[in-house]
Amino acid sequence: MLVGAGAILVGVALVPLASAGTLALHAEIHWKGGDVACPGGLPSTVACHPHPGRALVPGLGEVTQAYVFPLEQNAMPPDCKAKGGFNVLGYRARLVVNGKGEIFFAVSGIPGCFFGPPPDTVVNNTQPFTITGGSGRYVGASGTGTLTHVGKFDPSYGHAVGIDTWTGTLVVPGLEFDLKAPTISGAANKVVRAPPGARTARVTFNLSARDDVDGSLPVSCKPRSGSRFKVGRTRVTCSATDTSGNRASATFTVTVKRRR
């Protein structure tokens, strides 16, 4: 039985609360499932499925999700068991923030009967969580919230895929979360002439970004500076992201005219 559940690093949002050291958490993390051996101490009737995923979370940075989703297949009413149903057990989870530390969670189980069309079961549910601590910058972390799973079986991958949505409040004593995006400069419309007889022109431009915490940051643009632009108008989209996951964007237009 292949099982998936889940609910960024693509839509991710973190909203600041009033007090320093507090973050309203809403992070969506895309994952791909699979099958692994369960942690020690669980009975043989439990099946475990990892939900690895990564997202860019404003206020935190690059976040990696780490936990296994445990399903109990015997401890349930006979009518549920006969249908191939299962209970969702509680488990420990971590959000690993790149270069900064970890946030620890205790996720509560959900009693009941969950099942889907054989041979592949997908779990869509919401579980309460408690933040039990952390490491690095997140020592002493606390808070509560919910983890919502949405998943489906992907035949091309052979396992379930989905999105995990973490929603709640994260409190870290003495830590002020950075939620201010960088500032991008130099996004100005450009008009250039194509060489005689040419249908394109090579166009260069120079943008810069600065962040209150990280200082100077690189700017990524599509199309890139130095690309060949066709005659006509082309919109260029640029972005810069700081180490706390705050993203700024800017656009401008490149107009290429035929040389008379």
- How are the strands ordered across the major sheet? 2-3-15-14-13-10-9-6-5
Stretches with pLDDT under 50, minimum 5 residues: 1-19, 116-120
Beta fraction of the residues?
Answer: over 45%
Given the C-alpha coordinates, what overall shape results? elongated
As for the number of domains, it is: 2
Residues in helices, as a percent range: under 10%
Mean pLDDT: 86
Instruction: Round the Cα radius of gyration to an integer and report it.
Output: 24 Å
State the major sheet. 9 strands, antiparallel
Number of strands: 24
- Class derived from helix and strand content: mainly beta
Q: Give the H and E element order.
A: EEEEEEEHEEEEEEEEEEEEEEEEE
The separation of the N and C termini measures: 68 Å
How many helical elements? Answer: 1
Produce a short descriptive summary.
With 260 residues, the chain is an all-beta fold. 2% of the residues lie in helices and 57% in strands.
What descriptive keywords fit this protein?
mainly beta; 260 residues
